[in-house]
Write a structure and sequence with these properties.
Layout lengths: L12 H4 L11 H16 L4 E3 L9 E4 L6 E11 L3 E8 L2 E11 L1 E7 L5 E7 H14 L4 H4 L6 E2 L2 H17 L10
Antiparallel strand pairs: 1-2, 2-3, 3-6, 4-5, 5-8, 6-7
């Protein structure tokens, strides 16, 4: 596995603002990309990482909200609850910037898992927020586009370092991903 470079705004505004193309087939290369993205996400202490954030214009993302890392390929939100919750978000592609973003509290998502099998996943609270944030990336939308006006603020270097340390502790305690045989 290898660490990938996370592209950042405004340097990579093109890829971050582009709607990604569907993954046509889950290949050995797709699974390698997923493994590298998981390692990169953990190193950056993130909860999710979408392919365009590492310069790849494909519809896939990885995530880990404390139950071990997983991937979702060609995700689509197929159902969203009516309840909206506003919470603070940040983004690995816009380091140190945070803002309050309204998101559906409950959603259902379809797509493929990293083995290429169809899945339908219910998500609530933090997991629902992460899914919506990452699917936005796949559609060329950044969290700042959805943020409550006047809620955006920059973290100090010390606050960002604390965020990273907390995230890395979470990653160390999370279970390892299941092995997926190469097809």
């Amino acid at each position: 596995m290898a660490l990938l470079k996370i592209v950042t705004y405004p340097d990579a505004v093109g890829i971050l603002r582009t709607r990604c193309k569907p993954v046509m087939k889950v290949t050995r290369e797709t699974r390698r990309l997923i493994s590298n993205m998981i390692e990169t996400m953990r190193h950056a202490a993130g909860l999710g990482l979408a392919a365009p954030q590492v310069g790849v214009g494909q519809r896939l993302f990885v995530y880990d909200v404390g139950e071990g890392p997983e991937a979702l390929i060609n995700p689509e939100i197929v159902q969203a609850g009516e309840e909206i919750e506003v919470a603070t978000e940040g983004c690995l592609s816009i380091p140190r910037l945070q803002g309050d973003v309204p998101r559906h509290k409950e959603i259902q998502v379809t797509g493929l898992n990293r083995a290429g099998k169809p899945v339908r996943l219910p998500a609530q609270n933090l997991l629902a927020r992460v899914f919506q944030h990452e699917i936005d990336h796949l559609n060329g939308v950044l969290f700042v586009d959805r943020a409550v006006p006047d809620s955006l603020h920059w973290l100090t270097e010390e606050e960002e370092e604390e965020r990273v340390q907390v995230g890395r502790r979470r990653s160390v305690e999370a279970p390892e991903p299941e092995a997926v045989s190469a097809a």
